Amino acid sequence: MTTAPPPPWTASDSADLYGLPLWGTPFFRVSDQGEVEVNLGEMENPNWNSMACILEELEARGIDAPLMLRFGNILEHRIKLLNESFRKAIADVGYQGAFKGVFPIKVNQQQQVIEQICQYGKPYHHGLEAGSKPELIAALSYMQDPEALIICNGYKDQEFIDLALYAIQMGMQVMLVVETVGEVPLILERATAIGVKPRLGVRMKLSTPGSGKWIQSGGDNSVFGLNAEQVIHVVDLLKKADALQCLELLHYHLGSQIPNIRTIRSGVSEASRVYVNLVQEGAPMGYLDMGGGLAVDYDGSQSNTTSSRNYAVEEYCADVVESVMDICSKSGVKHPTLITESGRATVAHYGVLVFNILDVSGISSRLDLPTLPANVPTELKYLADIPKHLKAVNLQESLNDALYYRDELRSRFSLGLISLRERALTEQCFAAILRQIEKATKTLDRIPDSLEELSTSRPEIYYGNFSLFQSLPDTWAIDQLFPIMPIHRLLEKPEHEGIFADITCDCDGKIDHFIADTGSKKSLPLHDFNKDEAYYIGVFLVGAYQETLGDLHNLFGDTNVVSVELDDEGKRAYGHEVEGDTVADVLSYVEYDPKEMTMNFRSLAERAVRSGLITAPQRKTIMQAYREGMQGYTYFEQA
């Protein structure tokens, strides 16, 4: 009886394998041609474009990987979704207040991002949050909507306060949020000197704890905000200065990525009680700022794990509105304008990092054993004989034997009893045996756990043209999981299990945890690598924090950045091109002077000429190479 061949691998199989329908909808999909496509049109009227074709067109223009792709229509959709969801929730229950979102600049401070948020947010008067003087300066430059809010958080010196007060004087909707009691006298003093009424908020440290990775952002142990005693102290200071009428806003923040909706509801309820009491103290109030926390479902599990969330944006908005309305209505307090500082949920989907694979290192894929010389050690002969007796019923026993003989031969090498060449033959035999056992397990109805883990316990290393520390710092720092998958060749079944190493010389420069159905897994299914063909990997949902937090580890700088959108004729257009850092750029960031360095190297080359080590024409060639290297991309450049 012959066994029917397995059905051909399909695009749908690849999509399911990498979980794309769970985390990528409605922005990304796998096409029938086996390529990841991005929707550059409206969500209701999609316009699907191959990311592999985008890469080809950019390379033809001289823009190489690694690069950050930004999709403006996705950013526009996220801003629209948040604002329209709040509008619907408000209308559904008859809430008497409004909603005004603000984007925290710290989540992605890149100029193009802030410019587009102001552009796409204008129909909703979507504002900005500034947590430092430079961020306020950026906000005042790009926020041209006089109805949009600018929320000023963080510790503030006189220059920061003066800028905010001058903006209020010019008609901007700027709120100075009090972070410490000591800020109050300075703000009132500067407001009097400038001759303007300040618009104040106060940041409350709620007793409700946060959840997820940023659980310490909320609760009694939070490092930011005022406790109940301090909030009352601020109220008393304002009353004493006859300035309580300046207090308009209550702000709190439970954390950056809150996976559980129950935590959000608890925080909103507590904050609403505080808000009501501030009104009862005589403050006019009017605004309730719930900070960040709206989570991104990175793994698509729709659960309360740290990389997911157990609610949708629409549910989040409805729960917030209902909670505030219930408490304010029962207390006879006018419904406030609701504010969220949703940064991660606004920009995460907007950015995709794409890098190319440079090489692969790992376990050989060969099933056949090497030919052994006649005089090899007995243990090596025994190892090579294992496949002769390999059967479905003795796979575990064969694995145990292979491990035993491999370890014996390694011990003999450590004692100087076998040669390096014999050690290499040992590793070749062992790898081939594991491949044969792994292949044989696929014929079993039930695979033992120890055998099922064979492929993932021996992943191959795919060397990617990127720096983890520059482009994906949260992967290294807080074990953040991002969706990762090849963007093409998805009609081929990936037969390898791999991890990614970047091109830094740091052992931490690797990605070895990936999204799985439950939790994470230690390897990712990948395809054969051919040096003659480009193999591109996409890291999705990286628009939040990654560009801002990236550092200069090994002096790898910013990647190339391109914005991809459709023009008026519906054709792909590439704009806002930002060239990645040159070597000279990153050296100047860490206080080197490229001109001085070139001069020093020129002196070294001239000494070599005088010493007869090189000729004058050789010096010219060497100096040209040095200057070209100084102006080159910090990442691997194709010849």
SSE inventory with pairings:
Elements: H1 11-17, H2 20-23, E1 28-30, E2 36-39, E3 48-50, H3 51-60, E4 67-71, H4 72-93, E5 102-104, H5 111-121, E6 127-130, H6 133-142, E7 149-152, H7 158-169, E8 173-178, H8 183-194, E9 200-203, H9 228-240, E10 247-251, E11 257-258, H10 261-280, E12 287-289, E13 293-294, H11 313-331, E14 337-339, H12 344-347, E15 351-361, H13 378-385, H14 395-414, H15 420-441, H16 449-452, H17 454-457, E16 460-464, H18 468-471, H19 473-478, E17 484-486, E18 496-501, E19 510-511, E20 514-515, E21 520-521, E22 524-526, E23 536-539, H20 546-549, E24 560-566, E25 572-578, H21 583-589, H22 594-610, H23 616-630
Helix pairs in contact: 4-5, 4-11, 6-7, 7-8, 10-11, 13-14, 14-15, 22-23
The CATH class of the domain at 95-342, by name, is: Alpha Beta
Q: What is the averaged pLDDT score?
A: 92
Q: Measure the end-to-end span.
A: 54 Å
Largest sheet: 10 strands, mixed
Short description:
By secondary structure, this protein is an alpha/beta fold. It is 40% helix and 16% strand.
Structural account:
This protein has 23 helices and 25 strands. The chain is an alpha/beta fold and 639 residues long. Among the domains are: 248 residues, Alanine racemase (TIM Barrel), CATH 3.20.20.10; 78 residues, Methane Monooxygenase Hydroxylase, Chain G, domain 1; 38 residues, no CATH class. Helix 4 packs parallel to helix 11. The model has no long low-confidence stretch (mean pLDDT 92).
Label this structure with key terms.
23 helices, 25 strands, 639 residues, TIM Barrel, globular, ten-stranded mixed β-sheet, 16% strand, eight-stranded parallel β-sheet, Methane Monooxygenase Hydroxylase, Chain G, domain 1, alpha/beta
